[in-house]
Amino acid sequence: MRTLAAILIFAFALPAFAQERSSRSNSSGYLRMPVNISTHKDYSLGHAIGGNRKIINHLSVNIISGNAAKLRGIEAGGFANIYSEDIIGIQAAGLANIVEGGGYGIQAAGLANVMGESFYGIQVGGLANVVQGDARGIQFGGLANVIEGDFHGAQGSIFANVIQDDTRGFQFSGIANVVEGGFLGIQGAGLANIIQHYGFQEY
Asked: What is the model's pTM?
C-alpha cells in the first residue's frame, strides 16, 4: 500500500517539478525533463506538460518510440529513439536511434543507428551504423558501417565499411573496406580493401 502511494505521489509531483524548473530557464522554447516517459512518438509526459515547446530529455524511457529535440543523459526505447536536434549521452533502442543532428556518447540499436551530422563515441548496430558527417570513435555494424565524412577510430562489420572521405585507424570487414579518400592505418577484409589514396596499410 505504501509503495502504491509513493508511485502515485511521484506521478503527480513530477509534472509540477518539471514545470517549475523549466519556467525559469526555458524562455527560448525548450522544456527540460528530468524524467520523461513516452508511449509512442509525440505521446509523452513532456509533450503533455510543454505543449509546443521543444523537449530536452535527461532520463527518457520510451515504451514504443519517443520524439524530442535534445538528449542530455540516458535513454532506452522499446523500438525507436528519435531526435530532431542533437544528443549527448547514452541511447539504447530495440530497433533504431535516429538523430537529425550530431552527437557525443554511446548508441546501441537492434537495427540501426542513424546520425544526420557528426558523431563522436561508440556505435553498435545490429544491421548498420550511418553517420552523415564526420565520426570519431568505435563502430560495430552487423551488416555495414557508412560514414559520409572522414573517420578516425576503429570499425568492424560482417559485410562492409564505407567511408566517403579520409580515414585514420582500423577497419575489419567480412567482405570489403571502402575508403574514398586517403587512408592511414590497418585494414582486414575477406574480399577486398579499396582505397582511393593510399597511406599506410597492412593485411
From this structure: 0.82
